C-alpha cells in the first residue's frame, strides 16, 4: 500500500502498488567503500624513488670517502695496497704491492687474495688511474645492491611499497656506510652479487643465478663459502 502526495500537499487515497519491491529481490544494499589503507602506487613511482635513493647514496658515500682520502685518513691496508697493485698491473708487474711483500714476503696481491675481479678493476684503473676511481667504483656497486634487493623483496611480498622500505633501510643502514668509509675492499661487490643470485633463483632463472654465483666466487676467495651457505638456505625444507 502506498500513498501519493498531491499538488496541494495532501495525501491521496491509498493505492495498490502493482509491483511491490521485494526485500530480497535485489539483495542487500552495497556498502560504500572508504579509502583503501596501504594501497599500492604506480610501479613507476617506486622505481623512481628507488633510483633517487640509490643516486643519493652513491653521491653521498663518494663525497664522504673522498673527504676522508684528501684528509690523509686512508691507510696502506686496505687502500694503498689496492692502488699500488692496480698501478703495478698496468705497468707490467702483476698485482705487486709493497705492503704484503714487506709483511709476508709475497710478490703479488693474488697470493694473499686470489681474486680474478681485480684484473677487471685493473683495466678500469688503466683508463682512469686515480684513487677516486676506486672510491667511485665502491660507492657505485654498494648503492646498486639496493636494486636487486628491491626486486627480490617485491617478488616475494608482491608489494612495491614494502620492497621500497626494505631497499631504503639497506641504504640508510649506518654499518653499511661505516664499513665503506674504511678504505677499499673487494667485499663491497658481494651484496650486489648475492642479492642478484637470490633474485634469479626466486624467479627460477637458474642459469642466470649460476652465472652470478660464479662471478661472486671469482670476486674473492670467500665467495665459494658464501655460495655454499646460500645453497643451504635456498634448499627446500623437507616436508614434516
TrEMBL record:
Transmembrane as a keyword?
A: yes
Question: Which species is this record about?
Answer: mine drainage metagenome
**Which sequence ranges are marked TM in the entry?**
45-64, 103-128, 134-152, 164-182, 206-226
Q: Where is this region: Disordered?
A: 1-37
InterPro entries given in the database record: STSV1_Orf64
The entry's protein name is: DUF2079 domain-containing protein
Answer whether the UniProt record assigns the keyword Flavoprotein to this protein: no
UniProt keyword terms in alphabetical order: Membrane, Transmembrane, Transmembrane helix
Pfam families this protein is in?
DUF2079
